[in-house]
Amino acid sequence: MTSTGDSRERPVAGPAPTQTAYRRIVNPFTVGLAVAGVLALVVRWVFISVVDPHVPAIGDASAYHLLANNLADGRGYIRPFDLLVIHKVHTTAEYPPLFPAVLSVVSWFGAKSVQAQRLCMGVVGTATVVVIGMVGRRVAGVTAGLTAAFVAAVYPMLFQSDATLMSETLFVFLVASAVLLAYQCADRPTVVRFVALGGVIGLATLTRAEGALLTVLLVVPLAVRVPNVSARRRLLFGAVGVGLAVVVVAPWTIRNQRRFHAFVPVSTNIGTALEGANCRPVYSGSFIGLWRSNFTLSPSSPDACFTGFDIRRPDFNEARISATHRDRGVRYARHHAGRLPAVVVTRWLRTWGLFRPHQQINEAALEGRPKRWETLGTWMYWALLAPAIGGLVVAVRRHRRVWPLVATIVMVSLSTVATYGNQRFRAGAEPAVVILAAVGLVAAVTIVRRRLAPA
């Protein structure tokens, strides 16, 4: 006997709220990104422990290591080698403060060895891989995001910085985070998101000074192009983004003003960079576009580049001496302006791995990077270039927003032509290269599948 009741079908009950939340968290992208993160951490820790790259006794990496331990011991930001060699305490701003400050937290917990600090930086490098995957998904979908994450996990030009204890580890993480925040600002612009973007750019600036360029390259274009809002609202977004970056950097700048009685926005190493990059040995010949120091020469020698700081002077003031070196470099550049176009182009080509790559690999070895791995990283970078260019074309044709990625490439280009060529300086743009290459690879595979599919 059939029922005479309501014959309408009852609605099927949907998944419980807890199941929906679980599916949002545990999905193919999240699982894949977690696997990429584990792979990245394993690669970094194995490389650090087994390959064990040499950290030069005198160099940037050792300076960061000593600065961190001095901070942890309560000595403050002092020139590490002055204390080590001549037992004098000199206030410093030679290096931007954030990377040694982060290392000092590790040191404060007792991990004062180079090895322990490198292992902790491997964790930061792993976080960068995760952020790269998230940006890749935002640009071109889940497959591109996971492809970018897995490429970044095994890319030597990224993980070598972690192992050699260089500031690029933290800088790349912050730049990639700024790019992710830029996409979020573009998707749903709010004051809070622009505040976060400005704050991260400020932190990037305190890691490497060229990070400040992102205020102009990211914040301003995003604020100007916010749709469907008033001009006042756009101005507010830009002001809070740029303002937060300034607010983050300002305490360090004020500290430098008080200590040196000079305006030092981020660091004094601009003097070192400009003098060593503007002298006769690097304006022609085999070293064109590089940086050189020659501590045994007199500053008046025609072949003198950066000749070092006279740290034994009783009136030693790092900022004033740095300004002297800066002025020498600027003066040389002005007097040899006819050579500048060739030098600037060569600097740019060197940083992008397109001029005398073997020489660039040797230069990297002086900073502690193993030659074999730097060579492998250079080859892998070259292999990524073509799909990255293709990925850029595909993204533009599909009307995807690519400027946040391109902005990092512009940042690197501007900073390197103003200083000198070095593949390490490309670090801030490596996430963009990896992500665009992933977009290109996924597009190429899709095209091949379509052509091979039966009609």
What features would you describe in this structure?
The chain is globular. It has 455 residues and is an all-alpha fold. Mean pLDDT is 92; it is low at 1-9. The chain has one domain. The chain starts with 16 loop residues before the first helix and ends with a helix. 67% of the residues lie in helices and 0% in strands.
Provide tags for this entry.
455 residues
Distance between the termini: 52 Å
Number of strands: 0
Helix count, per DSSP? 19
How do the SSEs run, as a string of H and E?
HHHHHHHHHHHHHHHHHHH
Low-confidence stretches: 1-9
Mean pLDDT, to the nearest integer, reads 92
Structural class: mainly alpha
Radius of gyration: 25 Å
Structural domain tally? 1
Helix content: 55-70%
Give a brief rundown of this model.
The protein is an all-alpha fold.
Question: What is the topological layout?
Answer:
Blueprint: H1 17-25, H2 28-51, H3 60-72, H4 80-86, H5 98-108, H6 114-140, H7 142-153, H8 156-163, H9 168-187, H10 191-205, H11 213-224, H12 231-260, H13 269-277, H14 318-335, H15 340-351, H16 357-366, H17 371-397, H18 403-418, H19 430-452
